[in-house]
Design brief:
Blueprint lengths: L1 H24 L5 E4 L26 H5 L3 E5 L14 E8 L2 E8 L4 H9 L2 H10 L1 H5 L1 H11 L3 H4 L6 H11 L3 H4 L8 H20 L2 H15 L10 H5 L5 H24 L10 H19 L11 H14 L5
Antiparallel strand pairs: 1-4, 2-3, 3-4
Helix pairs in contact: 1-4, 3-4, 8-10, 10-11, 10-13, 11-13, 14-15
Length: about 325
């Protein structure tokens, strides 16, 4: 019993120390800035596209590199597959006079968080040392994961998540002649994947912070493809356009565009943690996202309405998750 109490005391003590320095432990140099370049104009496949990327438009990693910049910073040997603590990859996209930058560095993944949640004392202790930021923001991370996952046991049959909203936007496309000339755009790795990443990152940024949105995006990509940081891919991975580096680097850039939109909509609608998400607000927010997609991808949409089923269900879910007492 004494040992158990001592262990608990140690965890509390470490947790308090980590919370105090958590912001120093998770930093980002991701940024958006005015630039003179416009790499999208250099590629014929992107001659009519601005901002948001469609992974389904690329036939190879080299083709993607003709549109975005990918730069690796590693201190390990070419034959070493170990990701060192200061390894990172910097991905830049410059479009329509604006540049976004995503820096993916070594760190924990969502798998590590799940292991710590379901594990023993040492698993808990490990996550405290490896990511104080995750520990001090654990409640907000729980909220994000609820919004990002289907939870019918908590929110009822037909529960909606960010992915549902992406699918709804896809169904709202009303310019088939413009949108569906490329058949791969209609697959899950086309419009739906782009809409999903931008929608999720925008909402997380508006409701919480850009830093949390970036953290969530990074732990997701590190979990499935840690080799993104080193750039050391097998030929099979490079050739896998749906699950390989092309898809993941596109996701990281779209995360950045989503964060920028989220910051703008946060100001426009004066969104904070106490915001009550009426169906009208959800519909307006989603229509602003669709307005961006329309501008970026040169396609048209029918608007969301407050009475739409997806809108009303997500409104109720947002209020349940964001209301601290009910949560």
């Amino acid at each position: 019993m004494c040992t158990l109490n001592s262990n608990r005391f140690l965890i509390v003590l470490l947790l308090l120390c980590c919370i105090g320095c958590s912001r120093l432990q998770h930093t980002t140099i991701n940024d958006v800035r005015i630039c003179a370049c416009d790499t999208s104009a250099d590629s014929t496949i992107y001659s009519t596209v601005r901002g948001a990327l469609l992974g389904s438009r690329f036939k190879s990693l080299d083709e993607l590199k003709s549109v975005i910049s990918i730069e690796y910073f590693n201190d390990n040997a070419d034959t070493d597959s170990t990701i060192h603590g200061n390894s990172k990859v910097c991905i830049r996209d410059c479009s329509n006079g604006m540049e976004v930058v995503n820096v993916l560095a070594s760190g924990i993944s969502q798998g590590d968080i799940a292991a710590a949640r379901d594990g023993d004392f040492w698993d808990h202790l490990s996550i405290i040392f490896r990511s104080p930021y995750a520990v001090s923001n654990r409640k907000d991370l729980e909220r994000v994961f609820l919004l990002a996952r289907f939870r019918p046991n908590l929110f009822g049959e037909g529960d909606v998540a960010f992915f549902s909203l992406a699918q709804a936007s896809f169904r709202n496309i009303n310019t088939a002649d413009l949108a569906f000339a490329n058949s791969r755009d209609t697959t899950e790795k086309g419009y739906i994947n782009t809409f999903n990443h931008i929608t999720a990152q925008a909402f997380i940024t508006s409701c919480f912070s850009e830093e949390l949105a970036d953290f969530v995006g990074d732990i997701h990509e590190r979990y499935y493809h840690p080799e993104l940081i080193l750039g050391k891919f097998t030929e099979k991975q490079i050739g896998d356009l749906d699950e390989g580096p092309v898809d993941n680097y596109v996701d990281l850039i779209n995360n950045e565009w989503g964060q920028q939109i989220g910051k703008q909509l946060k100001v426009k609608y004066n969104i904070n943690r106490e915001t009550w998400w009426k169906p009208e607000l959800v519909a307006n927010y989603l229509n602003d996202l669709q307005h961006y997609y329309s501008w970026a991808l040169q396609i048209g949409f029918k608007p969301f309405k407050p009475e739409d089923e997806q809108v009303t269900k997500f409104s109720r879910k947002m209020n349940a998750v964001m209301n601290r007492k009910s949560f």
